[in-house]
């Protein structure tokens, strides 16, 4: 893929937002990192918020695609595993975009925030569908799907706080560990 | 308890850090919220960072006390339940302190950061002890205690992103839901 100027701006901005935080990154910082003048940057994006918004949309659309691939897997346990692996892999491969999206939501204007929240809800709804199908198929216990979905996403999303790409473990491996834990539970059968 | 000036400063600062973020809150903002002059505030704390540090220490010491109460419960499953309830209850009752502590660590100087990380590690070590005892007693499966501990803390800590005190549900109830899920797992026995 040819990295267009627009793409380069988004990538440099996502890195800066992740390292320094959105509030403390200036348009000047983004222009400098991309090797552009502020005027050239404003040719591509009207504001810093628009950069944040586009990063968030791209991250969420990518995540949703992963979730939808998992949804097409007919066996509920395997679908859950694929969902968790896909979410974790996407996070690792698109680290700065993912972190920016998760941390940036509070800095968006109400209208843009509403649209990103709707995309997040769609991703979460896909997970709930997998859980619901598992319950209907008698594979999963009749748990509260909202609570269980939240538990799964909490484990995966909290990885932004401690997981660093390029370390000894792949994010997907962590996700598989969490999957085994949430599927089978801590308690020894018959204990 | 008589709210000393020092306590009032910490409380107002924690609220501001939670609402506006640490970086965007000024010493002037804290002084104003507490009804003090900047000079009076500097009489109590040498810097904004010192305020953040004291909030973080108080939050972590409180959390550790909750964890240690749980640790004194001999039955492993009950100890885990108490740990999760205690963590969630402390979070709800000390919302601004807890959120400030979790979000503020990256803004601390290396030396202060090291000390807060050591306290967090101590809290996590207490949880791992509970899990290890459960495995040794044959109550829990022989899971990776580091991974399982991380899963539990991820679920509880991610609550800072969505749970608001004063809503229809207590944080402890959410913790009990997570406990049931992590203990028994999603999979129906014999499925």
From TrEMBL, chains A, B:
Cite the entry's keywords alphabetically. Answer: DNA-binding, Transcription, Transcription regulation
Q: Which InterPro entries match?
A: DNA-bd_HTH_TetR-type_CS, Homeodomain-like_sf, HTH-type_TetR-like_transc_reg, HTH_TetR, KstR2_TetR_C, Tet_transcr_reg_TetR-rel_C_sf
Ranges of residues in domain HTH tetR-type = 3-63
Tell me the domain of life.
Bacteria
Residues in the DNA-binding region are 26-45
Protein name, per record: Transcriptional regulator, TetR family
The organism of origin for this protein = Thermus aquaticus (strain ATCC BAA-2747 / Y51MC23)
């Amino acid at each position: 893929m040819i990295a267009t100027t627009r793409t380069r701006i988004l990538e440099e901005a996502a890195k800066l937002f992740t390292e320094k935080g959105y509030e403390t990154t200036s348009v000047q910082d983004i222009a400098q990192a991309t090797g552009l003048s502020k005027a050239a940057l404003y040719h591509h994006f009207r504001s810093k918020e628009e950069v944040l918004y586009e990063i968030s949309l791209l991250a969420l659309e990518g995540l949703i695609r992963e979730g939808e691939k998992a949804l097409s897997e007919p066996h509920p346990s395997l679908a859950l595993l694929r969902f968790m692996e896909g979410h974790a892999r996407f996070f690792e491969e698109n680290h700065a975009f993912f972190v920016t999206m998760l941390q940036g939501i509070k800095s968006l204007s109400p209208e843009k925030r509403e649209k990103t929240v709707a995309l997040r809800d769609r991703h979460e709804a896909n997970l709930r569908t997998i859980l619901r199908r598992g319950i209907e198929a008698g594979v999963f216990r009749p748990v509260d799907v909202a609570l269980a979905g939240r538990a799964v996403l909490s484990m995966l999303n909290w990885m932004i706080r401690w997981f660093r790409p390029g370390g000894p473990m792949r994010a997907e491996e962590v996700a598989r560990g969490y999957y085994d834990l949430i599927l089978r539970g801590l308690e020894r059968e018959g204990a």
